[in-house]
Predict the 3D structure of the following.
Amino acid sequence: MSVNLHRMKNGLRIVTENMPGLKSASIGIWVNVGGRHERLEQNGVAHFLEHMAFKGTKTRTALEIAETIEDVGGFINAYTSREMTAYYARVLEDHVDLALELIADILLNSTFDANEMEIERGVILQEIGQANDTPDDIIFDWLQEASFPGQPLGRPILGPSERVRAFQREDLAGFVEEFYGPEQMILSAAGAVDHEAIVAAAERLFGDLPARPPRKAEPGEFKGSERRVEKDLEQAHFALALEAPGYRDDRIYTAQIYSMALGGGMSSRLFQEAREKRGLCYTIFAQAGAFSDIGTLTIYSGTSADDIADLAGLCIDELRRSADDMSEAEIARARAQLKAGLLMGLESPSSRCERLARMVGIWDRVPPLEETVEKIDAVTAQGVAAYAAEMCDAGKISLALYGPVSSAPERTELAERLKK
């Protein structure tokens, strides 16, 4: 398998990887724009735009878009994150050109029909309502806001209901004009694909797009605050965040291995201490989330009102303890988990396609897997301990609590306990 990268004259980048033996392919356009690129009055428009892409173009109705891809047994989908919006399809090898043409059509020729906008507005409002009614969904939006208050990076991707209700066609068209230039687009394909054929098709479909300089997102600054919502629920939901490295920082591998050892599986410290030994919860995990310039270490659990204080204290104590006695065996296990997750995930063309786009979006190249594995293997127990100690010494915490949480300690109390 080999990776090929090509840059068109207008700045659009094309990255492909042929996977011998496959009869299918994944292909899509990843646009380097998401929720963190929105101005306050635009919050939610990137996600609304992604929904509207499938609601009709100058040549196809919404039904015809669905029929075009499903007539050949494929599927098409999209998602919006804080830094990217993706439009992608999975098809058999004979229909790669069709999939790319369809993706180009919805990106370049969407009409944003007024009637379709009203229908989709209702769908998105239902999506927001569903998220608000799901405690272990909404708490992560609150934690993001608490970590990056008053910043685009801290705003919800779906946007507030009042803004979604107010968006008009010109808001969507204006966002496309501002952000959907070729220099912000990455065409990625993996599986049964031919690089030269995809480059030729891309030149035909996107070659006339005029180059335009991308507008950079506002840098993120982890500040730390608290969001506490008291509600009569069965469980108290607890989410805590500390500042972590971004994707462009090589310490990201240390952060990922640390989070794995801390709360990434059944053998992890948090799982063993909180669930197996003390029975404080059913679910508990830690994860390292990263953006291009900054990241967060997140711990989440759900517990009873009677146990929330003990659980919160235990999490802080495990953070402190991990700075002192993280063993080589724990780090070796976490390294193995991280490598296995990476390599197993790349057995599908969809995973490879997404990885290619993300790597090009971050580094403007695709690091060889061997390079990534070497960096994972280079992480030591001493390095993890130093990283953990640095986080504890900083004492910067964000906290989100939802449910019967009146007995949960304050953020400032936990921050002081972390530094002791």
The radius of gyration is 23 Å. Residues 56 and 63 are 8 Å apart (CA to CA).
